[in-house]
Every structure is written in C-alpha cells, then in structure tokens.
Batch of 2 targets.
Target 1
Amino acid sequence: TRTPVNVTVTGAAGQIGYALLFRIASGHLLGPDVPVKLRLLEITPALKAAEGTAMELDDCAFPLLKGIDISDDPNVAFDGANVGLLVGARPRTAGMERGDLLEANGGIFGPQGKAINDHAADDIRVLVVGNPANTNALIAQSSAPDVPADRFTAMTRLDHNRAISQLSKKTGVPVSEIRRLTIWGNHSATQYPDIFHAEVAGKNAAETVNDEKWLAEEFIPTVAKRGAAIIAARGASSAASAANAAIDHVFTWTNGTAEGDWTSAGVVSDGSYGVPEGLISSFPVTAKDGRFEIVQGLDVNEFSRARIDASVAELEEEREAVRGLGLI
Ligand code: NAX
C-alpha cells in the first residue's frame, strides 16, 4: 500500500476550501489510487468551522482519506507537507490601498513560506490561490530559500478554463477540442488570454474566429472580469470553479499535460518572452515528470506583446511594492 500524500490546505474553512476538500479526499487532486492525509490550516477563530468540515469529511467515509489534522500554526500544518494549497488570504476591504493589502498578505505568506522552508517534505509543491496570487506566491517563495523556486506556483487555471469556455461558446466547438490556449501575466484584470496559438478542432483559433473586435472588446474583458460577473450574479465570489481549477492545476502538474497541448500557470520566470527573471507570471506551460516547463519559441505579435507587457508591468510594480515593504 502507498504512503499517503500530505496535502496542506490553508483557508480550509472558507468557501473555496469547502468546495476543494471533498474533491481532494475523493481522489481528484492526485488520482484515484493515491491515499491522502489532509492538514487544514486556519486562523484561530475559524478552527471550529474547520472542525465542522472535518466532521463532514469523516461522514463521507472516503476510502482514500487516511487522516485529517487541523491547526492554526503553519509550522504544524506544513510539517511533512507534499502539496500545499495556499487559499486563505486577506481580502481587500473598502478603503484599503494596494500597499495595505500587500502588507497584510505579506504577514500571511511570509510566515507560511518560512514554515514550508523549515518543515515541508523535500518534494513539496505549492499552489497559491489566495489573492493577489502571483505576488503572494512570490512572497512565499522568497521566504523559502531552501526550496527550489520552481515549486512555487500561482493559479491562473481558472482564467484558462474560463477562456476555453468562452472560446467554445463563440466557435461552437466543444471544450474538449480546444487546445493550446494561454493566459499571460498577472491573475488580475490585466491578464491576457491569448488565442493566437490556440486551436479549435485542429484549426488556428484566431483565424477561425477572425474577429479582432470580438477579441479585444468581448473575449478579453469577459475572461478578465469574469470574477466580478460571478459576484454580481451569485452574490459571492467564485468558489467551486476556483476549487476545480486548483484541482486541475495540481493534477496536471503531477500527471503531465497531454502530448501536443499545454496549460497556463503562474511560474517563476526564467526571462522567457521578455518577462523579468524571478517574477511569478502566467505562461503557457507543459508538465512532465512533476515539473512545469515554459513553452518556448512562440511568435508574439504586436497585439499580444502590448497586452503581455502591460500585465507584466503590473507584476513588476507589485514586486517593487513588496520589496519596499521588506517582504521579499
Ligand atoms: P473566504 O473568505 O471564504 O475564505 C478564506 C479563508 O481563509 C477564511 O476561512 C479565513 O479564515 C482563512 N484565512 C485567512 N487568513 C488565514 C491565514 N493566515 N491562515 C490560514 N487561513 C486563513 O475566501 P474564498 O472565497 O475561499 O477565497 C480565498 C482566496 O481565493 C481569496 O483570496 C480570493 O481572492 C482567492 N481567489 C483566487 C482565484 C484565482 O483564480 N487565483 C479565484 C477565486 C478566488 O477569488
């Protein structure tokens, strides 16, 4: 029998946590043959709610779930962790400046990065979901100097999945026949969903659509502002779709991308496509043997270049801001 994989989930009592934990425990994160132990990290006032969720997990009698621990101490929750899903974050509240937001999140992701550095298993893989995800991931990564930098990633898979769905609606081609879509840059309103290299039913997506007005005025803003549209409709932010994307991200990372296809993830830049080294930016990536690799050699046209540059400039500003605050 296999040794269980330790999966640490922060913000476990939140709404994404509630949508995420049951799918991890039922085998969707790592595969149907991989036993898991859950380590739930919450702030002290939310521990009771996390215990309630743990009771429900017990009540599912999931065959793969080999244990649940709950803690408000990152050093305990990340002890021996193989996968870390960093969901809990400090949301922006009314009147909060960006500097305040970054500082508050630095107080969360700095100590969690250090706890990962000091206590996680050697094969630790981290996905940051909590916003601002790219820069929170950068803070955690910078606080974990002994962990290879490429183990820290930020989630743009939800944006990726949203873009596939919108492209499917436009072209009438099923999502299963859409490949090679890319989200570039920051998980924010500046992100750039790129269909110039994408394929719908084996044909180039941009040529098939052949509608630059739709691309610039409908597709890109619809994908980039989808989170706000969900809040307006549902009265709460995306939860099940975010949890689903987190599952997709880790499953792809550990099980690989299909031959000839790629996905999108926020990964540490090696300078590819002019993205400054060290930034955690979304790229087209393949996954193999448990590693993401940035897809090389794509032509970037003028339309794409301007949009990638704008989103990357925002990431650089965020990095400067957290540097200024001494968080990295
Ligand atoms: P909730 O407010 O429902 O849950 C957050 C949970 O985190 C709360 O239970 C809170 O007690 C906990 N928490 C806060 N500080 C913590 C800490 N230091 N350690 C451990 N737990 C802590 O938010 P939810 O809707 O679950 O969203 C979570 C995060 O995901 C937010 O930052 C949100 O902005 C972000 N999202 C990111 C997305 C992405 O694509 N990258 C999409 C969905 C979502 O908006």
Target 2
Amino acid sequence: MQTVDIIRKKRNGGELTAEEIQFLIKGFAKDEIPDYQMAAWAMAVFFRGMSDRETADLTLAMVESGEQVDLSQIEGRKVDKHSTGGVGDTTTLIVAPLVASAGVPVAKLSGRGLGHTGGTIDKLESFRGFTTGLSTEQFVKQVNELKIAVAGQTANLTPADKQLYALRDVTATVDSIPLIASSIMSKKIAGGADAIVLDVKTGKGAFMKDEESAVQLAEAMVGIGSRVGRQTVAVISDMNQPLGYAVGNALEVKEAIDTLQGRGPDDLTELSLTLGAHMVVLAGKTDSVTEARGLLEGKLKDGSALAKFKEFVEAQGGDPRAVDQTDLLPTVSRQVEVPAPEDGTIAQLEAEEIGLCAMQLGAGRATKEDRIDHAVGIVLHKKVGDVVSRGEAIATLHVNDESKVKAVQNRLLQAVTITKERIVPPRQIRSIVT
Ligand code: URA
Ligand code: CA
C-alpha cells in the first residue's frame, strides 16, 4: 500500500477502506508517514469529507494507536459526559455527583483549561489538597465504593489524535466535521466509557458558531457511537453567553455548590438536569428521560447530590469543609464592579471575550505552562434579556493583580451589547440528537 495512492483516492472523492485508514494512522503514529503527506490527506478530507463508515474506522484506528482504559472492574454501565468546550461551564462538577447520587457510576477523565475555556481539574484544585493523580487501581476502587472519581489523563491515550490535531492546527484543517468527530470520540472510547452523553455547544463562544453545524457534528459523533457499540446522545446547548453567572475556578466551584443545593442559575440547572437525565437513562437506571429527571430533581432537593460532592472532594484529598463554608476556598484581595454605560436591555454577552477577560485576570492559561490563580474571575450580575440602568453593575471582577483592572474593565464592556429593544433570553437547550 502506498500513502500517495491513499491521498489521491481521497483527493478524487473516493471512499477509503478500513485497511487504508489503519495503514495511514498506524504509519503516522510510528513516524513512518511524514507530516507533509498526512497534511495533504487532512486537506483532502477537509474538502471531500468522509462517509459515516470511514469516520468510524478513523476513530477506531486512533483508539488503537494508544492505551485503552479498562473499566471492566467497575460494576454497572459507565456513562461518560463530554462538552465541546464553553465559558463558565461548571456542569461536570454538578452532573458527576448528581448522577452518582442516583447510583450511576461516574468514572471521569478530565483535563485542564486552555485559552478562553476552563477545565474541570483546575476548578477542582480550588479545594486545597485536591488531587486527580489516581492510579488505575485507586480510580476503579473509588468508583466502586463512591460511584464517582475524577482523574487526570495519565495513560497514553490516542497518541495518533494528539499528533494529528497538532498538524491540523497549523494546516487549517481543524474545522472538518469528520476530523473533529473522530478526534473527540476516539478519546471517549479509549477512556473506557460504555455510553456517552455529549454537550455540543453552539454560538459565539463555541467551536461550532452556528446551530446547523453543531447538529451536523452531533450527528457525526452519535453515528460513530452507534457503529462502534457505544450508545451516544448529544445535547445541543447555547454558548453565546457564559453559562451561569460565574467565570473563574473557585467562583465556578461556588456556583456548582449553589446548584447542587437547588439554588443555582436557571441555565446551568437546566443543562445539568438534561445532561444528567440522559446519563441516567443510558446507564439503564430508568426507562424514560422524564423519569430520570424526576429522580435527579429529588437528589438535588433532599441533599444527596451535595452530600455526594462532599464525599468525593474528601476522597480525593480536598478539604470537605469548604463545601459548606465556601469562604474557605481561595478569595481575591479586591472586587471591582463594571457599571453599565447606559439604560437598556442586555442583547449580547459574548462568551469567548468574557472567557478571555477571565483568562487575562489569571483564571486561565494562554499556554500550557502558565500557572493559574484559582481565586480570580468574573461574576456577571446580568444575562441576555435582563434590563439594566446606567451605572448599575453588569459584573464584578475578582482581582489579585491591580494592574490588570482597567484593561479588563474596558474589554468586558466591549463584550456587552445593550439595546433599547426587547430581547427574548435564548433557550439553553436547542435540541437532542440520538
Ligand atoms: N476538540 C477535539 O478534541 N478535537 C478536535 O478536533 C476539535 C476539538
Ligand atoms: Ca458559570
């Protein structure tokens, strides 16, 4: 088999066989196929696309390029949750203990934040002492005992995806639906999940700016899941404005705790219950989403979801007292309000820009090596559709580095649009793809 023939076939719009795809991915992972050939192939895929069958074969080839997490020692159906990346998105901190409190095993591999989006591990490390460095044995044991564990990725999962993603990043071939779908799904499958619930974001702060391409991406991923025997459901959700009010690590932990106490923001609560309900159904705990949702609402009301969160924090070395006394979490030296420049209704709160404002305050990383400040960030007081008066606070900046205040205040105001027209708040859940 010759690499050039495979590139030509795809360039001419042909459908590659499973063997051809395996040859390509294996060769690339072993550095036998050079970057320039792989880049040419990626560009051919960008223009020609891939069939559902090719996309599933590409996913499996990438899964087989590295280790696969064996979760077979965990009792029950393991359902993973994945988000395509949002701003102020603390749903994992809510959904994981929530569904665990309903008896569904949650074995979650999570990452750190980069750029305008945050990461679950960074948020959890707001608890002093919290560790995600669990061995596979500890991870499995904790899920069997508590139904919940969150670990950083230690195993060498999908190295071919890492290599291909780096190449796509510099060859303008990231935004291809089959390449994105296979990249995301390969990591979930290698992580050992039996079933997967995806939160596919759409809007200004999302990877997929328009709803139609978000649905296409969701359909591609659900299609891969069904072809490889891992049932997958996708929730299409709004990411034009940040989720909830808080953006920043400890601030989002507090928001998650509020939500676990049943008094969180409406959008965050709605999304958490929707994602959680689909996880409960896929785990086989209830027959219908409606029934699952009722079960989870009960767990928020009776305190079991919050109690589960506390147990989980303690099991992974964090200070559980901070769950009840959130003033034990990292706090800032100064809070600065951002006043509205005029009367009107909030028409836009651009998620990506607000995420970048939080990053500029120190809540996120511009490069992988940057250290983050868990205490800093932004708390919004208004959301799209809310009325404001001139001088009223739209947001509060939580700051430790005084020198950044002016620039971030100005940047934040640029991200806000105020109008005299009536604005209907966006629907958080756009559709469900099964
Ligand atoms: N996220 C991924 O993991 N892979 C992609 O290709 C795009 C976004
Ligand atoms: Ca939030």
